[in-house]
Design goal:
The complex is a heterodimer of chains A (251) and B (179). Chain A has 251 residues and is mainly alpha-helical. Helices cover 67% and strands 0% of the residues of chain A. In chain A, helix 1 (3-24) runs antiparallel to helix 2 (33-61) and helix 5 packs antiparallel against helix 9 (190-207). Chain B is an alpha/beta fold. In chain B, 18% of the residues lie in helices and 19% in strands. Chain B contains three helices and seven strands, in the order H-E-E-H-E-H-E-E-E-E. The radius of gyration of chain B is 19 Å and the shape is elongated. Classes of the chains: A mainly alpha (251), B alpha/beta (179). The A-B interface holds A 33-34, 37-38, 41-42, 44-49, 51-52, 107-108, 111, 114, 122-124, 126-131, 133-134, 136-138, 140-141, 144, 196, 199-200, 203-204, 207 and B 51, 53-57, 84-89, 113-114, 116, 119, 121, 125-131, 133, 152-159, 163, 177, 179.
Chain lengths: 251, 179
């Protein structure tokens, strides 16, 4: 088995699953009905993408782990998502800023993956790209509305950007797994992806009258290697409870 | 029980009667998710379907409905094949499907879906519009036909729909997004 590809697929799946689970927490609790529906729909898209990544990862591994096994029977240290995605929902500016940072990266990354040397990865990316495009259009719009809104929404949105900024560097901080995938033509290189990300974030921040923190700021890392913040454990405890208590339970 | 002599055309005709579980006025063929039908010599039938959205909860129901319908017509060996590429697009929705949607009160996709290859980062990034994305579509009210309408929410009752309201007849309505 190609360990690097398996790990890379896990990262793709874990990112989508952890954010999907996070925003599903707001189901029935969104700040407005339209936001509630939007968040749950985005969550559903991400969950669907998770299944596609995990199915491929499980097949590649060949150890009989299917998508459910990978989602429900791994502990926090075995998850490979970026730290950004496990951060708590906070206020709505926090929720949407996290979403916007991720969606921007996701959009450019998935776009690049449609040209992956791995046909199956390219196919999943092609399937996901339109969904991801729609997500980014929406979260960018919300960041502009909140940032260029009332003095209070502006202050909260700026605070959200400042607080979450240190988690954005990890998306472009490549290790041996990422680099092996770049070398194999499977994944896009970090530098151009980061440049595209910074350009789009800067454009939206300018329109939102927000100050973009320095790209050279100190950045957190560790999520992709399984070193997580305390928040992931709580998230998994809720998400995995049923399968842990009643393994193999079905509807 | 029929076993032999079922033609591909016959299978398509049967599938044209399998309703979408969430929008029962259109069939899975109208929706464009059935991509291919093959009938082997021994009568084994393979139907290739393409999911609409990655997380669409109706896909499993659709797959089951397709298999059930063909079995009800006497086909013993039905195989479903899910194919991701080329990715499903609303451009594959039939004209009759769009007319049926309108009659049901859902505005059909108002323009061609965005060509993925045309999505590129550009200098003129505007609010609500992604790099390379075109202007917002003109959506006609399915009740009165007015194009004087407004987007209420980018997401509606299902992932494939957005919520609009008509500024003339004042009716809110679902819009089947271009995808």
């Amino acid at each position: 088995m190609d360990d690097n590809k398996f790990n890379y697929l896990l990262r793709l799946g874990d990112n989508a699953l952890v954010l999907s689970q996070r925003i599903s927490e707001l189901c029935g609790k969104g700040p407005a009905l339209e936001e509630d529906m939007a968040l749950t729909n985005v969550s559903l898209d991400l969950l669907g993408q998770t299944r596609l990544w995990y199915s491929y990862a499980g097949e590649l591994e060949g150890a009989g782990r299917d998508e459910d096994r990978l989602a429900f029977h791994r502990d926090a240290h075995q998850f490979r998502n970026c730290l950004l995605l496990e951060q708590r929902n906070g206020n709505y500016a926090d929720t949407m800023m996290r979403q916007f940072f991720f969606d921007t990266w996701h959009y450019f990354q998935i776009g690049a993956l449609t040209k992956s040397s791995d046909a199956r990865i390219a196919g999943i990316a092609e399937k996901s790209l339109k969904e991801v495009t729609y997500h980014l259009r929406r979260s960018g719009d919300l960041v502009v509305r909140l940032g260029d809104g009332t003095p209070e929404s502006h202050a909260k949105t700026q605070a959200a950007a400042d607080a979450l900024w240190m988690y954005t560097g990890e998306m472009f901080n490549y290790d041996a797994v990422d680099q092996a995938m770049v070398d194999a033509g499977v994944a896009p290189a970090a530098a151009p992806l980061r440049a595209q990300w910074l350009e789009h974030v800067a454009a939206i921040f300018a329109e939102a009258t927000l100050v973009m923190p320095s790209p050279d700021a100190w950045m957190q890392k560790g999520g992709k290697q399984g070193v997580h913040s305390e928040h992931l454990g709580y998230l998994l405890a809720e998400m995995q409870f049923l399968q842990r208590a009643y393994p193999g339970a079905e509807w | 029980m029929q076993t032999a002599a079922v033609t591909v055309e016959q299978v398509w005709a049967w599938l044209a009667e399998v309703a979408d579980p969430e929008i029962p006025v259109i069939s899975v063929v109208d929706l464009g998710i059935v991509r291919a039908v093959e009938v082997a010599e021994g009568g084994a039938c393979t139907v290739t379907i393409t999911p609409t959205y990655s997380g669409c909860p109706a896909m499993q129901v659709i797959a089951d409905a397709v298999a059930d319908a063909l079995r009800a017509h006497g086909m013993a060996d039905v195989r479903l094949h899910t194919q991701l590429t080329p990715a499903w697009t609303t451009d594959w929705m039939s004209e009759s499907g769009k007319a049926k949607l309108r009659g049901y009160g859902i505005a059909p996709p108002a323009q061609q879906a965005i060509d993925i290859s045309g999505l590129r980062a550009g200098a003129g990034v505007k609010r609500g519009a992604l790099p390379g994305a075109g202007p917002q579509p003109v959506v006609a009210c399915p009740q009165c036909g007015s194009t004087h309408t407004e987007l209420t929410s980018q997401f509606g009752s299902t992932p494939c729909k957005a919520l609009y309201k008509c500024l003339d007849c004042r009716e809110p309505f679902d819009y089947f997004k271009c995808h």
